[in-house]
Design brief:
CATH class of the largest domain: Alpha Beta
CATH topology of the largest domain: Ubiquitin-like (UB roll)
Shape: globular
Radius of gyration: 15 Å
Number of domains: 2
Largest sheet: 5 strands, mixed
Strand order of the largest sheet: 2-1-5-3-4
Number of strands: 5
CATH superfamily of the largest domain: Beta-grasp domain
Oligomer: single chain
Distance between the termini: 44 Å
Order of helices and strands: EEHEEHEHHHH
Number of helices: 6
Length: 150
């Protein structure tokens, strides 16, 4: 199966029904995307598929064939973090950090869609669960990255 992962074409020999999460983690060794619940409830596995956030734990690999998949590994670059990554650090969002890659991917999709999001926009877009409860910091970081007063 032909996939486009982080701007590069890759060929994977997997069952079409295999969850995209396992293709990313186990086949391609892109371990930034996390397994949380396996039922699309927590969002730790969020990646972008053609720009839209999706829960990769329930997305079959076949659904990604011929489409653009972007993982946390492609958000920013060493020495040049994405504005969200810089804001995440400035607002001290991470505690345990487990949910962060999924949160960042959902937030990046939100800012692409709504460059100056309101609190309601953030609440609607960020449905990811955080065990540590850093939701207010997440909101502040998204606003900081967007240049919106918190």
């Amino acid at each position: 199966m032909q996939l486009q992962i982080n701007g590069r074409p890759v060929e994977v020999d997997v069952e079409p029904a295999m969850p995209l999460l396992w293709v990313l983690r186990d086949v391609l060794n892109l371990t930034g995307t996390k397994y949380g619940c396996g039922i699309a409830a927590c969002g730790a596995c969020t990646v972008r598929l053609d720009g839209q956030p999706v829960r990769s734990c329930v997305t079959p690999a076949s659904a990604a064939a011929g489409r653009r998949v972007v993982t946390i590994e492609a958000l920013g670059a060493p020495g040049a973090p994405h504005p969200l990554q810089a804001a995440w650090i400035a607002e001290q969002v991470p505690q345990c950090g487990y949910c962060q890659s999924g949160m960042l991917m959902a937030a990046a999709a939100l800012l692409d869609r709504k460059p100056k999001p309101s609190d309601a926009d953030i609440d609607e877009a960020i449905t990811n669960l955080c065990r540590c409860g850093t939701y207010q910091r997440v909101r502040a970081a998204i606003k900081r990255a967007a240049g919106v007063k918190a």
